[in-house]
Design brief:
Number of helices: 3
Radius of gyration: 22 Å
Structural class: alpha+beta
Order of helices and strands: HEEHHEEEEE
Helix content: 25-40%
Strand order of the largest sheet: 1-2-3-4-5
Strand content: 35-45%
Low-confidence stretches: 133-142
Shape: elongated
């Protein structure tokens, strides 16, 4: 397993009907790796404090808090895409530590979307692809 495979999280299809397709991306692995690195750095700072190196311990803890906060801010992002044919719009919702951002755009009435989530056995990874096309009938496919 290489680093990109370790950091990759799979997309999840939350709802798939003829009228609604909802997909979510939640980077749990990246957040877990970031939290473990932050905890390890904080433990090193506390160990330095326990050994009597006050300045070093405080510096390590301050840098851990600063850099760890920035890393968590970037890694803890949940993205949801909801394509709703009945309402005629697509909604993108991005949730971060600072709050939630919603964006809604209209869908073309003839837009067809089909998710395919599978496992690549040769590479040992999950893959997700979303195929979309414009059609006049539901039988038209690429």
């Amino acid at each position: 397993m290489n680093l990109p495979d370790l950091l990759a999280d799979a997309f999840r299809v939350l709802q798939q009907t003829d009228a609604v397709l909802e997909i979510e991306y939640r980077p749990i692995r990246r957040a877990a790796i970031a939290v473990s690195a932050i905890l390890m750095a904080a433990a090193m700072g506390l160990a330095a404090l326990a050994d009597g190196a006050i300045e070093t311990g405080i510096t390590v803890l301050a840098m851990t808090a600063l850099i760890g906060g920035l890393i968590l801010r970037k890694t803890t992002v949940v993205t949801q895409l909801r394509l709703d044919r009945a309402k005629g719009h697509a909604q993108l919702q991005v949730t971060r530590l600072q709050g939630r951002e919603n964006r809604t755009v209209p869908l073309a009435p003839s837009l067809r979307v089909e998710p395919r989530i599978g496992h690549d056995s040769s590479a040992g990874t999950d893959r997700a692809e979303i195929t979309s096309w414009l059609s006049r009938t539901s039988e038209d496919r690429p």
